[in-house]
Amino acid sequence: MSKERKTVLLVSFLILALLPVLSGKEETPSILSMRERNAVVNNWLKIRLETVLPELMRREKFDMWVVICREYNEDPVFFSLVPFNSIAARRLTMLVFYDRGKKGMEKLAVSRYGIGDFYEGVWQPDKIEQWECLAKVIKERNPKRIGINESDTFAFGDGLSSSLKKKLLRILGPEYSSRLHSADELAVGWLERRIPEELEVYPHVVAIAHQIITEAFSREIITPGVTTTQDVSWWIRERFRELRLSNWFHPSVSLQRFKKSNNNGGVILRGDLLHCDIGITYLRLNTDTQEHAYVLREGESDAPRGLKEALKLGNRLQDILIGEFKEGRTGNEILAAALKKAKEAGLKASIYSHPLGFHGHAAGPTIGLWDNQVNVPGKGDYRLNYDTCYAIELNIKTNLEEWGGQEVRIALEQDGTFTRKGVYFIDGRQTKLHIIK
Hints:
By secondary structure, this protein is α+β, with helices and mostly antiparallel strands. 35% of the residues lie in helices and 22% in strands. The strands form four sheets. A six-stranded mixed sheet has the order 4-3-2-1-5-6. Strands 13, 14, 15, 16 and 17 form a five-stranded antiparallel sheet that branches.
């Protein structure tokens, strides 16, 4: 075992100690300090650069990958390639990855500012202009295929701006410019791949999100007849800040009730079915979670049977969808197969699941969109790979007998991982409604 992996395992044990399984609402999530997060993320980065990157560059048949971006206009892959304390691309940053085969991967920075111990700085500003230095680095290594981030399909593989590409073509000249090729699937592959150390910790990240939902859907936060859905939404947002977490979208809380209400900012009443959608970012990993709660009426001790059965239908659709996850299948193929089985099962279903990882709506295959249940061109044609994570997002609609046959929508979203062992929910899933007394 390498020194770096031993270090990461020790850090992982630290996380396991600080983040107990969060099963009770009485427990407060323990969050690592920024300095501790720095140690975790940077050790993961070392492993990724040494193992994941060479594998993917060879898979995509590139012996060089060039990532160029400017401060505040960073390439979507940039922050996944640099240490935790990197806040911006600092003026103009050029990263060069060169596969030397058995000699290992060269990681070079053509930048005025250093990038920790991760990259060898090769530019001496007092001796050579920056673009000339980049050209020198490339031509000295004489790569056969050079990957650059431009894509008509994937935003994550389209980070090279038009003006920077023009400069790159000019300094390389016709011979080396002819060796430039889109590295969009390299960029997507890099972003989507999770290493074992990340997968070991991901359950604790998702558990924090689950715990926040448990806290929000409680009488400590919700007083029927007084609290509004917006009150709960903003409480969740403030809770993120209290826990020193960031969020990649504003949390939402909505309701359904007998004789429908379209007022999402309305007062929460007894008998309401509540829904939330939240996503946190922690240790550079993102979550995306949707769950439901029921507010008991006076005299009730549990949710109506029809609502509990509706949740089971949502769980059934989850099972159908993840059952169609097969390595090499496209997102569109998974969508079609799952919807076919859902229809055969009598479910009124909609599937709109997406990759999860360094981003919320992350790199990888799109499995349906809420407004496209047939075929998602481009992103839906990308194939499913092992060691990737997804937000299993979907809904079913059913008629609730207790509400006079009124249609209710059960919208669920739980985070899952796809490995050679199959698909599993990262920190379980909701199988029972949260009950607010």
